[in-house]
Amino acid sequence: xxxxxxRVFREQADLFAEHFEDMFAAADEEVAALLDLLAAEYGCEPxxxxxxxxxxxxHVLALADRGVEAEGLDFSGPFLDRARDRxxxxxxxxxxxxxxxxxxxxDELSGTYDLITVFWNxxxxxxxxxxxxxxxDARELLADNGVLxxxxxxxDFLLRNFDEATVSESDGRLSIYRxxxxxxxxxxxxxxxxxxxxxxxxxxxDTMEWENRLYAPPVLGELCESAGFETVSLFGGFDGSExxxxxxxxxxxxx
Length: 255
Prior knowledge:
The protein has 255 residues and is an alpha/beta fold. It has helices at residues 4-11, 13-19, 24-42, 58-65, 77-89, 128-141, 155-160, 217-226; strands at residues 48-52, 69-74, 96-100, 113-118, 142-153, 165-170, 173-182, 187-198, 201-213, 232-235, 249-254. It folds into two domains: 4-154 and 214-254, Vaccinia Virus protein VP39 (Rossmann fold, 3-Layer(aba) Sandwich); 157-212, N-terminal domain of TfIIb, CATH 2.20.25.
């Protein structure tokens, strides 16, 4: 049976990418804040970086814009095609490289990186054991003073503000979000039904479905430690804000 990640990120890649197109602007702000945080916390000013499960390259391009030799890794060919096209459009193709590679095989890479990032809920697809292996393999690719940065939705915030269904419309496209949570597994199940607006109603386009585990912040810290990192700091955002129950995101920095 096809895993949901193959279906959504490969078979439905174009629809998924278009659905989250507006997140590019946020990536520029996030990277600027992250670089400031790395400098303040660790004196780290990365020359070369790797974004694991980079998708369409949002953060890779933002890092390259700031002079970093930025690489991305993803198993979706359509995503990487979009990333390379955008790199050319933004004039950073000479500072970017994209690897068509599954993150579960990251140990096959041979580079050394000052910064490795795993952003936007890119853990929790294949189980905790796999996530620990991915982070442990990432640690082996870090330079001696390198830093791992992981960003996830704050599970505690989502549960306090849980919304089973929402509807949004943008640029003539209607999206109906439905979400369920299984406390026995810690997994969120998300379904998005997509419709195109017509003159007198809506035409059904497709449905995207995925389920992934979100780790509570302290469990994320423990996951990094289990992967071999000696120090882990948790923040409520890329800006280094305090992590609270009202933090929508959690950012872990580990070395």
